[in-house]
Amino acid sequence: MGFDTSRSNVAYNDLVIVFMGHDSMLPVTVKQGEITQTKFGALKHGELVGHEFGAKFNCTKGWVYILQPTPELWTTTLPHRTQILYAPDIAMITFQLELKPGSVVCESGTGSGSLSHAIIRTVAPTGHLHTVEFNQDRYEKAGVEFENHGLSKNVTIYHRDVINDGFPVENAADAVFLDIPRPDEALPQAAKALKSSGGRICSFSPCIEQTQRFCALLRRPGSGFRDVETIEIVRKSHNVKRVNIPVADIGLGNPEVKQHVLSDKGPLNYAYETGDDLAIGHVIVRTNQEAGKPCKPPKRQKVENVDSQESNSEASGNVQQKKGPEDKGYTAPSATKFGYSFRTCIAPKEIYGHTGYLTFASYCPEVCLDLDWCQ
After folding, report:
1. Is 109 left (phi over 0), alpha (psi -120 to 50) or beta?
2. Residue 160 CB burial class (10 angstroms; 0-12, 13-18, ≥19)
3. Using an 8 Å Cβ cutoff, are 275 and 299 in contact?
4. What Å distances lie between residue 250 and 16, 260, 304, CA to CA?
5. Which residues, at least 6 apart from 185, have a Cβ–Cβ distance to it below 8 Å?
6. pLDDT tens, 181-207?
7. Cα separations (Å) of 281 from 85, 240, 308?
8. How far apart are CA 284 and CA 278, in angstroms?
9. What is the SS3 assignment for 204?
10. What is the spatial order of strands in the sheet that 56-58 belongs to?
11. How many CB atoms lie within 10 A of CB 346?
12. Beta carbons of 119 and 94 less than 8 angstroms apart
């Protein structure tokens, strides 16, 4: 089974993804008589055959999931021959290049094939990817992977220098992607590869100086390109946590104030505190059963939203507590501490993940005066 097919159960010669955790996955080709060692013990290939994709598989020291391969899973598990593009950049590239089934794409810089797999999946079944790789070793290994993954009918890989030799097709591509050290020098070849009706181009560069030169060339009069835009994708993970903050002291130490707060005309709604089960955006009142001794939270709670006009109107009258089999009638609590509960997203102090700059532009040949304008 390759990337272009789907099946319910594992068979011999299938490429599967062994999932041991979100940060621990392993690509395995199922071969008769072979064994793969994982951190959860030995994985016997013969026992995988017939196993349903997505279900647990018991190893000698634990269990794993056996998953069908996808471009996203392949990106996280592939052997790195070069620095690769990851899902955030790939998603922006396929969106901005307006790729769809039937699109023809030219790619320069096949590398490890991370983006190539995603492009093929997007343009299949009738589209085609023409990808160019300068390095002989990477060209041969990528070609073998495309063949083994069942993608050969939607991709052709070439061993050539795109700057000197150009792309293998002319006036045929809907989009061109450049991932090379000098993208500005390959711009005339990219323009020749794009359809005469127009198309989109993208360049990926890790350095801002390369991006500046490329943008300056795109904006040059007569280039045929317009709508130049550069984007940097930085992945930012937020930690969601619960925060309890105190409400201003309203004098609960005074018996008269406390009595007024807990009376029928009390100005605040209250809720029994039940840990993380308490609704967000509610005032919390902790209570005492005996003087100086905090009580355990009851199993049932009364929650009223302080932001709701309806609950505010109810708060001005009697607040009746609900009764149930585990709650045989609690009297109004004596307030000792008020707090406000909410959830917030906290960004890390340091943000990692810069891979490079994506520059996009639209090709409009009707305004292009000379394809040799930048030479």
Report:
1. left
2. middle
3. no
4. 63, 11, 20
5. 163
6. 999 999 999 999 999 899 999 999 999
7. 41, 15, 10
8. 9
9. strand
10. 24-29, 15-21, 63-67, 56-58
11. 10
12. yes
- Is the Cβ–Cβ distance between 104 and 171 less than 8 Å? no
Question: CA dist 112 to 104, 129, 135, 296, Å?
Answer: 20, 15, 11, 59
Q: Output the DSSP codes for 131-153.
A: EEE--HHHHHHHHHHHHHTT-GG
Could you tell me where the DSSP H helices lie in the chain?
Answer: 45-48, 71-77, 87-96, 114-123, 136-148, 162-165, 187-193, 208-218, 255-261, 309-315
Angle formed at CA 90 by CA 89 and CA 91, multiple of 5 degrees: 90
For residues 348 and 299, the answer to whether their CB atoms sit within 8 Å is no
Q: Is beta strand 104-108 parallel, antiparallel or unpaired with respect to 128-133? A: parallel
Residue type for position 371: L
> For residue 54, what are the contacts with CB-CB under 8 A and spacing of at least 6?
65, 66, 67, 68
Under the banding of pLDDT at 50, 70 and 90, the label for residue 345 is confident
Q: What is the torsion angle, in degrees rounded to the nearest 10, for the CA atoms of residue 64, residue 67, residue 69 and residue 75?
A: -40
Other C-beta atoms closer than 10 Å to the C-beta of 7 total 10
Q: What are phi and psi of 293, to 5 degrees?
A: -120, 115
pLDDT in tens, 5-24: 778 899 999 999 999 988 89
Q: Which residue has the tokens 């899902």?
A: 87
Q: Cα–Cα distance between 39 and 193 in angstroms, integer?
A: 48
